[in-house]
């Protein structure tokens, strides 16, 4: 069973940056498209970004130009670099395969203060 452990969240002021990490157990990272997702308070979980096997990436409009997804296959880790953060980026962030499987990690809380 794949395990996903997200980390790197925290409290940051608007305009600041954070880098989220997702440690992926098992050897699936390089063989699958992976995605970042988030759930804001009172809202449904939404897709944020995808990194495809070939290295191409795709971003939701909300993060385009501010977020960058990458991975380190040797460390089985997926990253999300988030710059110019806005209060509306406040959410719990999750990683998962893309399309997402039914197995989710605990997520990491990102709080952006205005």
Give an overview of the whole structure.
By secondary structure, the protein is mainly beta. Helix content is 0%, strand content 48%. The strands form two sheets. Strands 2-10-9-4-5-6 form a six-stranded mixed sheet, with no helix packed on it. Strands 1-3-8-7 form a four-stranded antiparallel sheet, with no helix packed on it. The mean pLDDT is 94.
List keywords for this structure.
114 residues, mainly beta, 6-stranded mixed sheet
Write a brief structural summary.
This protein has 114 residues and is mostly beta strands.
Rg over CA atoms, rounded to whole Å, is: 13 Å
Structural class by secondary-structure content: mainly beta
Shape: globular
Helix content: under 10%
Instruction: Give the terminus-to-terminus CA distance.
Output: 40 Å
How many strand elements? Answer: 10
The major pleated sheet works out as: 6 strands, mixed
Report the total helices. Answer: 0
Q: What is the chain-wise order of helices and strands?
A: EEEEEEEEEE
What are the low-pLDDT stretches, counting only 5+ consecutive residues below 50? none
Share of β-strand residues: over 45%
Strand order of the largest sheet: 2-10-9-4-5-6
> Could you tell me the mean pLDDT?
94
Strand and helix layout:
Blueprint: E1 4-7, E2 10-13, E3 18-24, E4 34-39, E5 46-51, E6 57-59, E7 67-72, E8 77-82, E9 91-97, E10 108-113
Parallel strand pairs: 2-10
Antiparallel strand pairs: 1-3, 3-8, 4-5, 4-9, 5-6, 7-8, 9-10
